[in-house]
Design brief:
This protein is an alpha/beta fold and about 400 residues long. The protein contains 16 helices and 15 strands. Bound molecules: flavin mononucleotide.
């Protein structure tokens, strides 16, 4: 039987200390898309949060971000040239100091890169469609421009290796460019990049091909490569894809390439689709080709749920819990599971080094509902300097 405290060895040889990962989460702490001291402090205290920490999504192309919600000094990070390497290296060094693994999530935000427009760039899409909720111009990518983005994923991977990360995760979930290409709702192209289910998979396949080529040429043998996917894209009558199609994508990706893991992005790890009694982890797990491992994020917020989720996956991915307690893996490993902090309060907030941008985001939207969020709301007006410091002492 799988235990949370088991070590896990990926197919390329990297071993993580527990069956836990920290889910990628934006810290809203970049300045000019570069890492700031707030970013470094936040990751520095997370070196024991999980067997591997997946660092927030980072843009591989200049027009691949930032997305709309970020104010100028609370930005999404990027890795589209070598100037970004020194800052990112500080994140990787901080995360690795206790022997856990640091993974960088790579993204092109596609139509979500609205903030780039205000910086003089553009939001790029597979198909220029009149999406009712979008009120800014979209640029439909030419065939060659798509190939450029494929290359950008390779170049970003090379920079992630140079920055000292132990692996990268391709962000294929949450409505960004990868998902937009896979979605029949967002991709109505008729060239190599769209037109049939097979062709809608081509962007994911070609990015993976490029990434694995770069990894083979530049990375240590045990470098970790993962792929994140949202199991379905269904919004009322708008069906981008169903789990049946996701099954085919993960099957194809893990047949063609030696992915170390596939990472399911959900809001509830027990959720089932409309037409099956099995949950998404069970369904996609049937298609992921071994020895690629499976992990899932979504509502795994107690130790009991972590143990329960291991019935379906190899590794549990913890998002919001690691915002509250950055020492989850350490506490599991040292027999202190009962000491894991499960809600925001004075004690947990002091140790968690949330960035000002995260405190603001979490306190201002009900979407991220978390235990003790009322306490966080009391911080917004703002004793922030008392809570998130730059010297790591408070
Ligand atoms: C503040 C915040 C930022 C997030 N940023 C990212 C991100 O950069 N990339 C990503 O794939 N998912 C992102 N997510 C989704 C999480 O990775 C995770 O899937 C989600 O929070 C569900 O897991 P949880 O219930 O354990 O929090 C974010 C979630 C939160 C709460």
């Amino acid at each position: 039987m799988k235990k949370l405290t088991d070590e896990v060895t990926f197919r390329h040889g990297a071993t993580i200390s527990t069956r836990t990962a920290q889910s990628p989460m934006l810290t809203n702490s970049g300045l000019d898309e570069k890492v700031t001291q707030d970013t470094i402090d936040y990751y520095n205290v997370r070196s024991q949060s999980a067997g591997m920490v997946i660092v927030e999504y980072t843009s591989v192309s200049k027009n691949g971000g930032p997305s709309r919600s970020w104010a100028p000094n609370r930005e999404q990070l990027a890795i589209y040239n070598d100037d970004f390497i020194p800052g990112l290296k500080k994140i990787a060094d901080g995360l690795k100091k206790d022997g856990n693994k640091a993974i960088l999530q790579l993204v092109h935000s596609g139509r979500e890169a609205q903030y780039r427009i205000t910086l003089g760039g553009r939001a790029e899409v597979p198909s220029k469609i009149d999406f009712p909720w979008i009120d800014y111009p979209l640029h439909e990518l030419t065939e060659d421009e798509v190939w450029d983005i494929v290359k950008d994923f390779g170049a970003a991977t090379k920079r992630a290796i140079a920055s000292g990360f132990d692996g990268i995760e391709i962000h294929g979930a949450n409505h960004y460019l990868h998902q937009e290409f896979f979605s029949a709702f967002s991709n109505i192209r008729t060239d190599f990049w769209g037109g049939s289910l097979e062709k809608r998979m081509n962007f994911a396949i070609e990015v993976a091909r490029e990434v694995f080529k770069v990894v083979k040429e530049n990375a240590p043998k045990d470098f970790i490569v993962g792929y994140r996917i949202s199991p379905e894209e269904i919004h009322g009558d708008n069906v981008g894809y169903t789990w049946h199609e996701s099954q085919q994508l993960v099957k194809k990706l893990t047949e063609l390439f030696a992915f170390d893991y596939v990472h399911l992005s959900t809001n509830d790890y027990t959720a089932t689709p409309a037409d099956s009694d099995k949950n998404y982890a069970e369904l996609l797990g049937e298609s992921v080709q071994k020895p690629t491992l499976l992990m899932i994020a979504g509502g795994i917020h107690t130790v009991e749920k972590m143990e329960d989720a291991l019935k379906y996956v190899d590794i549990v991915s913890l998002g919001r819990p690691t915002l509250i307690d950055p020492q989850i893996a350490y506490k599991l490993k040292t027999g202190q599971a009962d000491k894991i902090l499960l809600e925001f309060n004075e004690e947990s907030v002091k140790g968690s080094h949330l960035t000002p941008g995260l405190i603001e985001l979490l306190s201002n939207t009900d979407y991220f509902a978390m235990p003790g969020i009322e306490y966080l709301k009391t911080l917004t007006d703002i004793k922030l300097d008392d809570v998130v410091t730059h010297d790591g002492t408070k």
